[in-house]
Write a structure and sequence with these properties.
Helices cover 53% and strands 15% of the residues. By secondary structure, it is α/β, with parallel strands linked by helices. The strands form two sheets. It has a five-stranded mixed beta sheet, with helices on both faces. A two-stranded parallel ribbon has the order 6-7.
């Protein structure tokens, strides 16, 4: 893939890092240096300061992805993969989105560069591990529910949301995301609520995770 222009993304997770500017400056220097080495233009630079990487629902990341979707750049570049996401599952999802949309993803700290054959191979390996991570979380969740059932704990009524949505909520919670962050991620993904609504709230996500809505099969 011939790269014409890069969209850079920076992130630091604490207000202290954001105020000092040191973390952001180092990331920007790494991205600018790589663009210069490759002889490509850095078309835009987006920065989320003092924002956790637990969720993809971040203002600057949303803007960066919008630039790529609009054709204002053909590569999303980060200095480190964990600046993009702390979740292998979410990072892999972005790689799949990039592949479908026709833009590339480059993480300078790892051999992830979907513009090259070797970089694509690394991305595919990450996809395998993300699937393993998802299955392990699912097994742990099932085991925990089974224990609660044998203890006589009422697990609640069935849920009225697709099983994959329930699984994603549980995955995000297992990764340490707050209910507010989970609701934000669902809203960013345009996922309807149990009653077909467009707005998720922290309490709604929590009720689904606790088993107080009915699960339905994946929509055709």
């Amino acid at each position: 893939m011939k790269v014409a222009g890069v969209v850079g993304y920076l992130r630091v997770s604490t207000e202290e890092q954001a105020d000092s500017g040191l973390g952001l400056a180092a990331q920007e220097a790494a991205i600018r240096g790589e663009c210069e080495r490759r002889g490509v233009d850095l078309l835009s630079l987006h920065s989320d300061a003092g924002i956790s990487g637990k969720s993809l629902a971040r203002p600057a990341l949303t803007a960066a992805l919008a630039d790529l979707d609009a054709g204002k750049g053909d590569v999303l570049m980060v200095s480190k993969l964990d600046r993009l996401s702390r979740s292998v599952h979410d990072a892999t999802g972005l790689m799949l989105r990039a592949e479908k949309a026709g833009w590339g993803l480059v993480a300078l700290d790892l051999a992830v560069d979907t513009t090259t054959p070797s970089g694509k191979a690394m991305a595919q390996m990450m996809s395998v591990f993300a699937e393993l991570e998802r299955r392990l979380i699912g097994e742990r969740t099932k085991a925990a529910l089974a224990v609660k059932s044998t203890q006589g704990v009422k697990l609640g009524r069935p849920r009225r949301v697709p099983e994959e949505v329930v699984t994603r909520i549980l995955e995000l919670r297992d990764e340490g995301a707050t209910w507010r962050e989970i609701a934000g991620a669902l809203n960013a993904g345009g996922i309807p609520t149990a009653h077909g609504g467009k707005q998720w709230y922290p309490a709604t996500a929590r009720l689904v995770a606790l088993g107080r809505s009915e699960v339905v099969g994946s929509p055709a």
